[in-house]
Amino acid sequence: MTSTPTPVQPSDRVLEAMQISLRGCEELLPESDWLKKLMRAEATGQPLRIKLGLDPTAPDIHIGHTVVLNKMRQLQNLGHTVIFLIGDFTSLIGDPSGRNNTRPPLTHEQIKANAETYYKQASLVLDPGKTEIRYNSEWSDPLGARGMIQLAAKYTVARMMERDDFTKRFAAQTPISVHEFLYPLMQGYDSVALKSDLELGGTDQKFNLLVGRHLQQEYGQEPQCILTMPLLEGLDGVEKMSKSKNNYVGITEAPNDMYAKILSISDVQMWKWFTLLSFRGEAEIASLKAEIAGGRNPKDAKVMLAKEITARFHSAAAADAAEQDFQNRSKGGIPDDIPEVTIAGAPVGIAALLKQARLVESNGEGNRLIDGGGVRIDQVVISDKGLKVEPGTYVVQVGKRKFARVTLTA
User: Fold this and answer.
1) CB contact at 8 A, 348 and 408
2) Distance of alpha carbon 184 from alpha carbon 204, whole angstroms
3) For the chain, does the N or the C end have fewer beta carbons within 10 angstroms?
4) Across-strand partners of 406?
5) What is the value of pTM for the model shown?
6) Taking a C-beta distance cutoff of 8 angstroms, is the pair 80, 47 a contact?
7) Looking at residue 228, what is its pLDDT?
8) Interval 365-392 mean pLDDT
9) Residue 94: CATH number of its domain
10) Percentage of the chain surpassing pLDDT 70?
11) From CA 388, how far away is CA 372, in angstroms rounded?
């Protein structure tokens, strides 16, 4: 049986796949090798194996995490095999990427709990029917001590110290534990076990992805290409999107909150979000950008982006409802569907009322919001932190998006 020869020149379909691969990406290395892989896949009908590894270090995914998932979906739509790898083994080590000290490893129970929700959330972006789910404990646990030593022999300390965060920590005399060297080795070994053709990751993962290329060569495999995606800035437009920075949009957030948060980003920032988060074609985005430059209201484009993302994680109907809800609020209106709470023991102090109605986390937060003019009862701004609210039913508002219909009883 003769093998199908790889064409000398790429077809239009391959060139389109290459353009899709490059959209919004930071680096594709080596580009020429990826083009060859795409040409071979088309000639043989054999899909390429595309790997994304995620350590379940937290139970929830925000839309910053979906930048790389979107790229996976685009490649999945081209017919290639997507491998969603849950790093249950590597999570036990802890990846120090981008950090100047050791990240504490997670317990097995924490990893299991986080992993249970990870794939369910990722499936809102990926096509579950065309996704291969793997756990790297499948091949990492059986390695044992002997296998780990043999693996470690395939990479030098000098090469490991080329990793930027290790270099900086060593120069600053910040401790580096030996087990941290195992993380990039084990992530690289994942590529060997999965026979990966392409591995995706954030820019902070570039070193680890390159280790995978090296180890595949050591094990006699064709080395994978690597594709890094930029880190998405959060709602502030400055810091990387992060829950700890409170500048994130969670993909399980209520549609009204998701829509409103996306609408709050700057006019400049939204174009990067279009490139990295929208599934609209690049030509359509370029045309829209030209219209905005020609005088069209930038909010029109932002509404399109907010509705597209909200519909992806909820539904088109939910996105439409969120748009209407936002318009009502911007006019000072009260949303149709707000929580209803009954609180006994009136009269109740205003800060305690806000906390019991679950509009704030603490009395202190409530008092700070009152000082800032962020609390309203029946649309009247409350400025008296000593206010005692008498029995009755009130619409209580905190900030722009939090409402509750509160009934106070004696």
Assistant:
1) yes
2) 12
3) N
4) 341, 394
5) 0.74
6) yes
7) 95
8) 87
9) 3.40.50.620
10) 94
11) 19
| Cα four-point dihedral sign 316, 281, 249, 206 | positive
pLDDT tens readout for residues 59-112 = 678 999 899 999 999 999 999 999 999 888 887 776 555 444 445 667 777 877
225 - beta bridge partners? Answer: 198
* More confident call, 306 vs 108: 306
**Residue 83 parent element (H or E):** strand 81-86
404, 338 contact by CB (below 8 A): yes
CA distance 156 to 168: 18
Give which of 238, 100, 102, 108 is closest to 172, Cα–Cα: 100
Beta-strand pair 375-377/380-381: antiparallel
> Are 224 and 325 part of one and the same domain?
no
Distance CA 292, CA 272 (A): 15
299 appears as a binding residue in the annotation? no
CA 319, CA 381: separation in Å to the nearest integer? Answer: 30
Q: Which domain holds residue 212?
A: 12-229
Maximal CA-CA distance, the chain: 87
| Backbone φ/ψ region at 96: left (φ over 0), alpha (ψ -120 to 50), beta | alpha
**Residues 157, 276 within the same domain:** no
Task: Write out pLDDT tens, residues 129-149.
Answer: 889 989 999 999 999 999 989
Among 278, 294, 329, residue at a domain's last position: 329
Residue 129: per-residue pLDDT: 85
Structural domain ending residue among the three candidates 329, 354, 377: 329
Is 38:198 a contact under the CB 8 Å cutoff? no
Q: Are 342 and 407 in contact (CB under 8 A)?
A: yes
Q: Is the separation of the CB atoms in 134 and 142 below 8 Å?
A: no
For the chain, the domain total comes to: 3
